[in-house]
Structures are given as C-alpha cells and as structure tokens.
Amino acid sequence: MRRRCHDGTPRVRAGEVVLITGAARGIGASVARLLHQSGARLVLIDRDEHALTKLVTDLGDPDIVWIACDVGDFDEMQDAATTAVARFGAIDVVVANAGIEHWAPVRTVAPQAFRQVIETNVVGVFNTVRAGVPSLLDQRGYVLVVASVSSYTAVPGMAAYAASKAGVEHFANVLRIELADHGVDVGTAHMSLVDSPMLRDTQAASPEFRALLAGFTGPDAPPGDR
C-alpha cells in the first residue's frame, strides 16, 4: 500500500503520474507544487483556464498536462483521464480535490446553490475517481479524496458544504473497501480552516461568515485572528 505523508499529501516516486483536480488555486495548487518538486509528472485539471495556465507557467515544466474542464461533467473527466494515459501511459495517483462552498442558512439558501455544491463536491469526486480507476487498478495506485473537518463537524450556514464533505468521506470509505483487494489504497484529507481563495471569497461575500470566523482562535483561526 502507498503511504501518505502526515499532511495527507500522497508520497510519490519521481516519474509517477498524478492527476489533480481543482489544481489552479489553493490546496490543489500547493499540492501540485510539492509533487512537482518531488519529480512527479502532473496532470492538472481546473475550470479556471487562466489560473491554470498561470500555475503551469510558474512551474516551468513543458511536460505538465493541463486540462480546463468541469469535474461535474463525467464525459469531460473521462476525456481528461484518456488524455493523461495517452500522454504518460498511466495514472498512478488521483487527487480528487476540486470543491466549492456556498455559505447560507438552510432556511434561505437557494436550491440551485445547494445543488451546485453537491454536484461539484460529491458528483465531481465520483466522476474524477470513476474516470481514473481503470489505470489505478493497472498501477496499483492511490486515491486521495480531499474531505474536510466539515465531514463530521456542524457549522451554521454550511449545510451544503458539510453534507458534501460527509458524503465524500463515506464515498472514500466504501471505495477503500472495494479496492483493497486490488492493491489500490484510498486516503482522505481533513482540512480545517485554510487560507485559500475559497475561504477568502466566502468571507468577502458574507458578513455573517466573517462574524462566525471572528469567534475562532488558535492555530486554525483565519489570518489576522490568530
């Protein structure tokens, strides 16, 4: 089985092929940078083509494969996996990281906004994993599903996000059992508050969310509140 680092980042060998979704910003971009330093061959996926190409330029590696597509569309993810295998011959590691957040109480959240969080955070993880599984089975590879402390912690205004992360937590648990006999390891990462574009965007859009975060102290508090 493939071991993980203490921070949940997959430990890869130089030359292994790693597919990362939500790669253009935040956690995904940080993981991409770390694994690139380790010699991994990267397949970076994000909806934001501008941010994605900027990251690839910053990394300065012409061998990086980058694909602007939506994890919520299975056909697009299957095409992305096919492109990765055609380019590198295999996919060794999948990091299902892409996710969004929409802060609103249940009594006022727009149904479409709630649905969009579920479709991106849950269906998107399924699409990513399902597209990558054939190669992962061949390689006896590794899947990292980026969940959250919200998988098991209730925070007012985050019903959609918490439901989605609890969903992918249990999705990963089932997947781990299903793939164990095939030599494929499945891990989950449980981030707390991360100074990422997603967190900053939510803070900017919601005074209520800013007020909620103001009550946090300690190492997991937002910047400026520690």
Automatic annotation (TrEMBL):
The keyword Oxidoreductase applies. Keywords: Oxidoreductase. GO terms for molecular function: oxidoreductase activity. The keyword Lipid biosynthesis does not apply. It comes from the Bacteria. GO terms for cellular component: membrane. Residues 16-187 form the Ketoreductase domain. CDD domains: SDR_c. Belongs to the short-chain dehydrogenases/reductases (SDR) family. PANTHER family: DEHYDROGENASE/REDUCTASE SDR FAMILY MEMBER 7B, DEHYDROGENASE_REDUCTASE SDR FAMILY MEMBER 7B. This is Oxidoreductase, short-chain dehydrogenase/reductase family. It comes from Mycolicibacterium hippocampi.
